[in-house]
Amino acid sequence: MKTLFKSAVAVALALSLSACASTQSASRAAMPDDTMMGLIQPDYTIDSFTVSVPKSLTVNERNTYYPRGDIVWRGDALGDRHAQVKAMFETSLRAAAPRVQGSRPVRVDIQVTRFHALSEKARYTVGGVHDISFLLRLVDAETGLQIGRTKDVSADLAGLDGQAAIAADARGDTQKNRLTTHLTNVLIEELTVPGGHRNADLGLLQRINNL
Fold first, then answer.
1. Which DSSP category does 37 fall into?
2. From CA 211, how far away is CA 208, in angstroms rounded?
């Protein structure tokens, strides 16, 4: 009986070690695409791009300090906010393309998941944080295969407030210009810097946005 018990334990232990070894092998196999992605110098050039702003994203036009919704945008005249946000990303991608000059041509696919800029009330009083996030996918332009994993990018930016916002508008540095330039720089970092863009730590207001 003891011999039978010991045999059963030995079999169980062998199976356990086998499973462990299998898991470790799988982890090692995944490392070049996953764990080590942040250590590799990107070598891309933008061949083409797509931008999607799903209609499922909610828009809030209320002029409160913090309107609830996925899209809060006042940098263009009242209109189709989804189309306006899409146009901003497309402008930023076109501006980024000449500054991304690697050897591997890629298609950049972007799906916006949040674009919460400042309402008029917030911008001209207390300010706040432009809360922006999007999914980024790279596709090899020659093979059509996705490169690595789809990345969830956070691209927050501190918003101007009060007199600073008024002065910026007066010199032509509008909310739209600031955000378009910011997105251009974020996209360049994603395609040229190991590990991509690192979201700024913008303090309490940013943390409130993430609640």
1. G
2. 5
